[in-house]
Fold:
Amino acid sequence: MKLLAIDTATEACSAALYLDGEISSRYEFAPRQHAELILPMVDMLLADAEIKLSSLDCLAFGRGPGAFTGVRIATGVIQGLAFAVDLPVIPVSTLAILAQGAVGQSNHLLSAIDARMGEVYWGLFQVHQDVVEAIGAESVSKPEQVTAPADRQWFGIGSGWNTYAQELRQAVNGSLTGLQGEAYPHARDIIPLAIRGYAAGAGVPAHQALPVYLRNKVTS
Structure:
């Protein structure tokens, strides 16, 4: 299988190319520079692999939630690429991408992204065959309103933990095995999620590759 993945939903910007089991990627922590960086990253990955975009099986992207501008950039880029070569797109949750990056830390993961305005985007995940699965729906709320089953050991990941560690610790009733508050989504972690989605028929045409903001009032 051959696929390209991108993510620009947070301060980090990244792209990854999967070619029959091998992953190459580009990553840069560059707030507000995603529009200038993402397409050159894609071009470099394709050029280094000596493969054309049209030779891929599908595309994937971080659909949000996250910063409005960043999510919009990834959506626009992936739609343009998909239209150009008529490839299906796998939209992947930014919270799931974060959780996938922490596989191996715990079987239960709580992803939280600082949503500004005193809120967090958050979601619960469990690991099945080394790929995360969502537990319930993703949400946006005040950190003290986050809830997680207390009978499980949770690993926290994402910028929400950096900003609201105390409130989120209370949300899991202290049953925390560890946390990575400085973690950001990386396109390489989209790959296993996109492979599973592609096998399940989750690919959509370019015009249906839509962002997910989780709230109407957005921040950049």
